[in-house]
Design a protein that fits this description.
Elements (H helix, E strand, L loop, with lengths): L15 E4 L5 H11 L3 E6 L6 H4 L1 H7 L3 E5 L8 H10 L2 E4 L5 H4 L4 H7 L4 E6 L14 H8 L19 H24 L3 E6 H13 L15 E5 L5 E5 L3 H10 L15 H6 L1 H12 L4 H8 L6 E3 L3 H5 L2 H6 L3 E3 L2 E3 L25 H12 L1
Parallel strand pairs: 1-2, 1-4, 2-3, 4-5, 5-6
Antiparallel strand pairs: 7-8, 8-9, 10-11
Helix pairs in contact: 1-8, 4-6, 7-9, 8-9
Length: about 375
């Protein structure tokens, strides 16, 4: 079952976005808005967004619901079409290093000269000013510099990177929020806005949310013995969430009959479990490893203990829950996960088009603009 386009939720219909961004954070911010009904035109150079070759799956996911226009911004002849785009757009998004957009003729001043009320969003690694503004970076290095890599995810283990590009993802989501806020402000006041959004600072926001900024803070304070990933006897991965005392007690009761069970630790409260964290973590790993994944699912089912099997996104998409919630959309031969919200019990964002070929609608778009002016 896929999202029904006839009842698609499109609250941003009529909002127009010129997207000059590449790779992940910028295209994520605009695809979220496109899913919600905004008309997004993706502008690419003749070489295309580098994500087309580096991360083709990411490219296809983040550029659905967009029209494709090609412009060679190094060619002075493109200036007239840039001007047309700026006059057309409510929002411009760019993700170049500071100063580059202005140098290639799509900077803030150019945009405002053609459209004084435009919302202009600049996404960069470290922001438009400051001593780090020109530094290079990637999600991993932004996360490290922001303090996010100081947080371990597992008891007794050193911090490790996530398999998800968290900084890029958060920055894209924050940019879409900022764009919506700026559009609301413009509706009320007529005021333009330049949004300066840094991937590094987005990750800094997340890192500070975890433990604050106290220099004396315990950077392991978010860890709980029993709230982790565990390997089963058949090499599968089980996620257990034994944070609260009552979940811990039920787990100890459910495993009392197993060799290596933790029944003698049943009445340890959360603080006592932390004190004995190293010991309990070792015992839990050995206990989970003594049974297969199927055996654990049978043992824990119906217990109300938070547990899940670690699966792939494709496996998750086939779950009865996501099928019931209609969280997968299909367009042509591709599957997508649109903005995940249900409105009034029935409406959802939809996918109406797959990612465009380079410049797929260049002439169509500019011909439409010419016709609209006649």
């Amino acid at each position: 079952m896929t999202v029904d386009q006839s009842s698609a939720w499109q609250p941003l219909k009529g909002v127009r976005i010129a997207d000059f961004s590449v790779l992940l954070p910028g295209p994520l911010s605009t695809v979220l808005l496109a899913d919600l009904g905004a008309e997004v035109v993706k502008i690419e150079s003749p070489h295309g967004d580098p994500a087309r070759s580096l991360l083709p799956g990411v490219f296809n996911t983040l550029n659905r619901n967009k029209r494709g226009v090609m412009l060679d911004l190094k060619d002075p002849a493109s200036a007239a079409r840039v001007a047309e785009l700026m006059r057309w757009a409510d929002v411009v998004v760019e993700s170049f290093r500071p100063g580059v957009a202005a140098r290639i003729g799509i900077g803030l001043e150019v945009a405002r000269s053609h459209n004084p009320k435009i919302i202009y969003c600049s996404m960069s690694g470290f922001g438009q000013d400051g001593p780090w503004r020109a530094k290079s970076g990637h999600d991993l290095t932004y996360s490290a510099a922001a303090g996010a890599m100081s947080h371990s995810g597992s008891w007794g283990q050193a911090p490790a990177r996530s398999g998800l590009p968290v900084g890029d993802l958060v920055a894209g989501m924050m940019a879409s929020n900022a764009i919506l806020a700026a559009l609301r402000e413009r509706d009320l006041t007529g005021q333009s806005a330049h949004l300066d959004l840094s991937i590094f600072e987005s990750m800094f926001f997340c890192a500070a949310t975890r433990h604050g900024l106290d220099e004396q803070v315990d950077l392991t304070g978010h860890l709980f013995p029993g709230n982790d990933l565990y390997q089963t006897a058949d090499g599968q991965t089980l996620a257990l969430g034994l944070m609260e005392d009552h979940y811990w007690q039920v787990f100890c009761d459910r495993t009392a009959s197993l060799a290596g069970g933790l029944s003698e630790c049943r009445d340890l409260d959360e603080q006592a479990r932390r004190t004995r964290g190293d010991e309990l973590t070792t015992q839990l790993k050995a206990l989970v490893r003594s049974q297969t994944l199927e055996q654990w699912c049978q043992r824990l089912e119906g217990s109300d203990i938070p547990f899940e099997v670690c699966v792939t996104p494709a496996q998750a998409a086939n779950s009865a829950h996501l099928r019931t919630r209609v969280r997968v959309a299909q367009q042509e031969d591709q599957k997508f996960v649109p903005f995940p919200v249900t409105v009034n019990g029935r409406q959802r964002p939809a996918v109406t088009r797959v990612s465009p070929r380079i410049g797929q609608e260049t002439e169509v778009f500019f011909n439409e603009r010419q016709s609209a002016q006649q």
